[in-house]
Amino acid sequence: MARQRTPQGPPPPPPVQRLRIRYAKRGRMRFSSTRDIARALERALRRAGIPMAFSAGFHPHPRISYANGAPTGAASEAEYVEIQVIEHLDPEAVRDALDAALPAALDIVEVVVAGPGGLADRLQASDWELRFRGVAPAEAERAVAAYLAAETAPVSRMFKTGPKTFDTRAAVVTIRVSGDESGDCAILRVVVRHSTPSVRPDDILTALRAVGAFAPPVPPLVTRLAQGPLRDSGGVADPLAADKEAVGS
User: Fold this and answer.
1) pTM of the shown model
2) Tell me, what CATH number does 53's domain have?
3) Mind listing the pLDDT tens digit for each residue in 23-66?
4) In angstroms, what is the C-alpha Rg of the chain?
5) Residue 156 forms beta bridges with which residues?
6) Are residue 113 and residue 163 in the same domain, yes or no?
7) Domain of residue 209, residue span
8) What is the pLDDT of residues 188-238, one digit of tens each?
9) What HEC string does the chain produce?
10) How many CA atoms lie within 13 A of 18 on its CB side?
11) Which residues lie below 8 Å from residue 229, measured CB to CB, with a gap of 6+?
């Protein structure tokens, strides 16, 4: 029987602090994949000299937890990641150093010391904005009315295990239409409950096309404005609020 190898050298220093980071994916960075974003963040952590905690074993990796990244092609003002470090750090200093080390259009919005509870459990819903150029708001309103009147709005999407059909309607908490000063841009604000499988903005657009014959001439500009706990009013709360309260108490 082959002898089991054991890692050489002392174990890595244990983490003493967890930091939760909110960052924005803007401009051209919206076309970056989740994996590309993760690589950029890990490189920036090294450049910024953040004293990361590492896992033990033959292939140590930095203790980073990513949470519910926006799909490729969508911008976002509310992406979240949690890191573990081996020194007690000032969150503002981390924010400044990490923001300076990241590429343009990938911006650190906020860093807080993690309080009790898991971050992923707080990410219950997302607030999305979809801007449709060349579409009158009245046209979008008709499609949205048909969508809201439907009991179900199923779509199909390809997954690693094959195609799957799922309902989008049950995941949509609120959806409303507005316009801009041009009168030729329909703006949809959609609050979507996180579910399995996740209902993405392109799934809702597919359902609007099927239920309400909604066919915009060009793809929308999609931005996640917020994600976090779902309010009773149908809005989305700040998932870092409990952490900031814990530090201030």
Assistant:
1) 0.92
2) 3.30.70.580
3) 999 999 999 999 999 999 999 999 999 999 998 877 888 999 99
4) 21
5) 165
6) no
7) 125-228
8) 999 999 999 999 999 999 999 999 999 999 999 999 999 999 999 999 999
9) CCCCCCCCCCCCCCCCEEEEEEEEECHHHHHCCHHHHHHHHHHHHHHCCCCECECCCCCCCECEEEECCCCCCCEEEEEEEEEEECCCCCHHHHHHHHHHHCCCCEEEEEEEECCCCCCHHHCCEEEEEEEEECCCHHHHHHHHHHHHHCCCCEEEEEECCEEEEEECHHHEEEEEEEECCCCCEEEEEEEEECCCCCCCHHHHHHHHHHHHCCCCCCCCEEEEEEEECECCCCCECCCCHHHHHHHHC
10) 14
11) 122, 124, 125, 236, 237, 239
Distances (CA, A) of 46 to 53, 98, 102, 103, 203: 12, 9, 11, 14, 37
Q: φ, ψ for residue 29 (rounded to 5)?
A: -70, -15
Same domain, 152 and 82: no
- d(Cα 119, Cα 196) in Å, to the nearest integer? 18
Domain co-membership, 184 together with 197? yes
